[in-house]
Design goal:
The protein is mainly α. It is built from 9 helices and no strands.
Length: about 220
């Protein structure tokens, strides 16, 4: 038994907690990568965007993978802002306001958006207009993207950020060394609590983000069937 485990009897339990929390973090990040690619695919196919699909890099750290997904989330936010700018530029103020009026029928909003896209692209499908309206009218998606970007930046800047995502499957002590680095074994509780705090916020924001994206992608699938 390690000396630190004799001095701190709860350490073996905390070590297992730390490994479990790290795996949960990676699973959550993987789901976010998948959801982000789904939304990027919809934007590319129906709105003529050119957002490159992403994947988790197993040879990279948590921080580096956070930066990968943040970059694409920022690109998605930029595209939504561009759609809004195009609508504002091409539409009369009254019609532009209708796009954000919750009392306005959805079909009327889609028809307005389709006219604008027809001017910009020469032609436009109702699916493209529907995607645009869903993105513009979804404060839920906008807020969850902003929240998740903020949390990803925090995780990347924390002690978790320097951890490689490939450590699962290594020996116990090697995993702990990778996670803790220079952190003393006596600080395992602090490390566990840090993981728990970040993970709880990250999981909650991720679930909302994935749900918001599913609302958009499921509507598109229904539309094209």
């Amino acid at each position: 038994m390690a000396l630190s485990d004799l001095l701190y009897p709860d350490n073996p339990k905390r070590k297992q907690e730390l490994i479990h929390l790290h795996q949960e973090l990676l699973d959550c990040m993987s789901a976010n990568f998948h959801a982000t690619n789904e939304l990027a695919g919809v934007l590319n196919e129906h709105l003529g965007c050119t957002i490159t699909p992403i994947k988790m890099r197993e040879s990279s750290t948590v921080k580096e993978n956070c930066e990968i997904i943040i970059q694409v989330m920022n690109a998605i936010q930029h595209q939504v802002q561009k759609i809004d700018s195009d609508m504002k530029e091409k539409l009369e103020p009254v019609l532009y306001q209708k796009l954000y009026d919750i009392k306005e029928p959805e079909l009327e909003k889609i028809a307005i958006a389709q006219r604008v896209f027809s001017i910009i692209f020469g032609e436009a499908t109702s699916t493209a207009a529907m995607v645009a309206i869903k993105l513009l009218g979804s404060d839920h998606l906008t807020l969850t993207v902003s929240k998740l970007v903020s949390l990803l930046a925090q995780i990347g800047a924390s002690v978790l950020g320097g951890v490689s995502i490939t450590i699962i499957g290594l020996g116990l002590e090697m995993i702990l060394h990778a996670i803790l680095g220079a952190v003393e074994r006596s600080q395992l509780l602090t490390a566990v609590r840090s993981y728990e705090k970040h993970l709880a916020e990250f999981k909650a924001a991720s679930e909302k983000y994935q749900h918001a994206i599913h609302e958009v992608t499921s509507l598109v699938r229904q539309q094209v069937q």
